[in-house]
Amino acid sequence: MKPAAFDYVSPTRKSDVLALLAEHGQNARIIAGGQSLMAVLNMRMTQPKLLIDINRIDELHYIEPQKRHLAVGAGVRQAELLSWPGLAEAVPLLARAMPWIGHFQTRNRGTVCGSLAHADPSAELPLCLTTLGGEVVLESKRGRRTVVAEAFFQGILTTDRRPDELLTEVRFPMSQPGVEYRFNEIAMRHGDFAIVSLAAVIGADAIRLGVGGVADRPVARNLERDQDLAGALNETAWSLDAQDDVQATAAYRRQMVRELGKRLIEEGY
Amino acid sequence: MTIYQSLAVEDRPNRIGARTERVEDEALLRGLGRYGDDVATAPGTLHATVVRSPHAHARILSLNTEKALAMQGVHGVLTGADVARWTAPFAVGVRQPMEHWCVAIDKVRYAGEPVCVVIADNRYLAEDAADAIEVEYETLPVSVDPETAIEDTAPVLHEAVGSNVVNERHFRYGEPEQAFEQAPFRVSLKVKYPRSACTPMECYVVLAHYQSASGTYDVLSNFQGPYALHSVMARALKVSGNCLRLRTPPDSGGSFGIKQGVFPYIVMMGLASRKVGAPVKWVEDRLEHLQAASSATNRVTEIEAAVEPDGRVTALRYDQIDDCGAYLRAPEPATFYRMHGNLTGAYGIRHLLVRNRVVLTNKTPTGLNRGFGGPQVYFALERLMQRIAVELDLDPLEVIRRNLIPAGVFPYQAPAGALLDSGDYPAAVGQAVVDGGLAELLRRRDDARAEGRLYGIGYAAVVEPSISNMGYITAAMTPEERRKAGPKNGAVSTATITVGPLGDVSVHVSSTPQGQGHQTVVAQVVAEVLGVAFASIRVNVELDTQKDAWSIASGNYSSRFAGAVAGTVYRAAVAIRDRMALIAAGQLGVQAEAVRFADGKVFAEGANPMPFHRLAGAAHWAPATLPEHEGGGLRETAFWSPPELTAPGDDDRINSSLCYGFIFDFCGLEIDRVTGEIRLDRYVTMHDAGRLLNPALVDGQVRGAFAQGFGAALMEEFAYGSDGSFLSGTLADYLIPTAPEVIEPVILHMETPSPFTPLGAKGAGEGNNMSTPVCIANAVADALGCDDIRLPLTPSRVRGLIGIDEPEAPEHLKQSAEAPAIPGGSTLQASGSVSIPASPEQVFDSLLDPAVLAVIIPGCHQLELEGENSYCADVTIGVGLIRARFQARVKLSDLEPPHSLCLSGSGNSPMGSAQGRARIRLSSLEDGGTRLDYQYDAAVGGKIAAVGGRMLQGASRVIIGQIFSRLSQQVGGVAPQAGLWLRLKAWLNALISKGDES
Fold first, then answer.
1. Are A238 and B810 within 8 A, CB to CB?
2. Are residues B828 and B965 in the same domain?
3. B518: domain range?
4. How many domains does chain B have?
5. pTM of the model
6. What is the pLDDT of residues B515-546, one digit of tens each?
7. Chain A residues whose beta carbon lies within 8 Å of the beta carbon of residue B676
């Protein structure tokens, strides 16, 4: 379990990364925390020619509350964001969901943007971003664009990021007054890949329910408050094309969307 | 025999029976352990990597090593041809025309089977070269499920055998037919025990050096024994025993039986060293370990009891099928026979009928695993006892109690031959019920049920065998076959004690521990006998077959340490003490019997005490002063084999173990009705393991075994796809409980010393592996009132038992609801459709156009025509960051222009194999365009399947989807629509949420 040979660079400026990405594109791979990439590299399931380490780029290392959103740079570790004092007030959903990400040790290394760029369908951060309707910032030598979460996540490990782009920032919408944010997850052990994870944004007249671990990407649905909740949850459950795997059946996943979803919305856990 | 008489433990720190802290821990906790990978290697040592089969069953058509050999730093490739030239197949206890070699010769029979070994300057280069090895396979149909594999029509693994059933034996003890006939009730149950393994932190390590001058193999490995396998290895290498020098490193990072299975790799790496003429090192990685090291057997059991109205069982019938994987590997089929003598468990049942069938399937070969045979037997027997209670409307604890072997009848001979050495089972149960607080748990159950919650209580009573009879495996043979082969029995233990010229005491035992604390207990025993300071004793547990005392039973298995090895240490210490007493008697002027050893001194009443080191020194520095017949020097090696371990008789009775401990467990648990998650409320485990040499270490054994039993009950299973591909290749797929999941059990002890071991101790290392899975299963059965309990009890499975009353899919989602669901496997099926703005004729013709095909196949570097509508392609496919380069064959068939055709492909890459077939239907749309419907099935094997199971379904969908969206783009010149709609929708959502904000 040793990686194939690759070149390694560790630039200190974002512009150098963008230049390298423009030159190498598909053949280059960004490494930040390495919590997914290292395992995949060691198993030779990915064999980039060039590994670009962004850990030394100070300009990517920031947590900035803006008027409408909380901006988190690509250098920020999950543990840093989780222990950022303003988090529970600014983005309460993250404060609830992030303790479910892996373990203490993996959060110390793993970055917030790295998890988004990797786009594991069971991961908590893509689910939160999708449910909150946040966006990511992608930069390349050609310029800079923002993409909303629902357009960014395109399938299993697949995003709208182009080979020459770097995901430089994620923007989580700030919490709204009178809105409740809830999260729950079922996994075999705490920290495992979610079998089903649920994020709920509960407002005065609308509920937005995000589901992770079921479809090939996180999916969020808007449910009307006065709507038949059981029917809406059933429709959500069936719409995700749940699959059987070694840990859970598709029927179990659908049932968790229905019953845990109901519990989360009505009873708060 | 010298039997130790225990003294009061008070005021005797670090002596037998004390809760002495482990002497091993300081080094281990400070990172100063010396494991196999830490051992210094000779200059010029090369590194090996094993190329493994991605297929579960295939013929090897060709193996091309040319490109690999040409690569930088590569020294050689060990192939099946070398192995066939230099070795013989491994010997096994069942006579059948089946051959198992350390590297596949002509066929592979499980996914992960070694196909060749690449040896290079380092592991990186070796893995680079391994990727360049080209193997051509012809895949064969597989036998994966043991119940299907026994059928006449099943694909056969070993053609020469002609069947997958390689051993079948029937046993009859007492008058079982009569008992069943007369019984007022018969209760039966069919259970399946899954495949799992206790997972050591450290995987296999082999460091081999072939000495060409002498023709000897010098190997260091974290092998755990039994050393009977040394003979198997030497015979495979076609050398005499003294030409295979096998050594073990000072520390081993866990084994639990699994490191028995390193033995084929010891042979393999010996040959690899011979091939390249240099020392070769191999360290197994986690994927290799999970996929191909070893596992416990999965078993299918039909069990039936003849029962009296009060719940007493008069006869038992077992019909067992053990799935030993692709090869019967020594010591299999021992999983059956390790437990054979005590198949009636803790119960006084006198009539027994058994049918044992050993079946081979396309899975990893099985071997020793903590609890060996016990979890499988007790899962059937104790589930049956619970069923008897349910069916006869009795209290399950009462059913257990009424059947227990009574006190005062020990040693008790069980019908199949076990001579149960000691115990008081009813007293142990009684004490556990009181001290473990059963009454409170029963109250909690009542309260929970009154509130509509799901709460259950489970019980298990288990006899825990230890110190295996090396002859038990011959019970797999008929009495006639045994007579021909000659008797096998006993279990020889060894211990050597040396007292040096400075009075320093060194001990060697051939017990190859993997973290249990043998050094601590050995020092406790020796300190007690010789009266020297505990801390001054050095215990060496490395084993060198060329220099140390060992025998075939040496090693670490069947919980043999406390009873056999520590007992043999005691005998060696007594031998040294008796010699020293004779020397001292002369110097002190007393009789030898009057000499005592304590506090570093030797003394006798009426004489001045003498320092121990001075007396010891005399044996080295002044041999002329010694009594007659005393040769000087102080070293004693004791060998001990218990006479009770006799060979199986013509009546097929076998005393399969020397000692039999007793365990009684009960637990209470609650189940979440929604999620199906199990919360263990309390787990009580009562042990009678004879005399406890160090109760703290016994508690450690209980906690560890409990954690593993808990894992087996709730999480652990090696999953295989229906095509035999292995699906649990990472520790994110094969789940082991960690500290937060495992509760602290309530551990209780009772001590009934064994009359058969020198210290009265029995083994205690495996009990909870045997009792915990079924105890938890019984509690779940009690909570849910169901009888078909399958392990592991995952939330999904438990919720399935509670029942999922699923509302129907809304009308517009019906189609996806009907998509075929393939249970968690490597076989993938799905369907989809795209609209293409071109006529069906245009689309059809495009598919037959190689130029179009080359564009629409994702990552196609090259497409060469091989025959009509068949191509050879070089493609890189993947999703996200995961990519693999395949040499693929692509074929278009069943052409019905312009309505339908078939697109199929298959390929191999170092990451595994893939094959798939898509049926394509074209129909005209009103706007002149074409609707293309496709339905595909695909299968992947090898590494991709082993580590990517969670992603396969989604990934295959992405890749297949890419093909048809590219086709649409190519033919119609338009990008598919989905992305844009999503973007629009997301944009709308963003607008709405911004509206909220203002």
1. yes
2. yes
3. 9-32+497-640
4. 4
5. 0.94
6. 999 999 999 999 999 999 999 999 999 999 99
7. 252
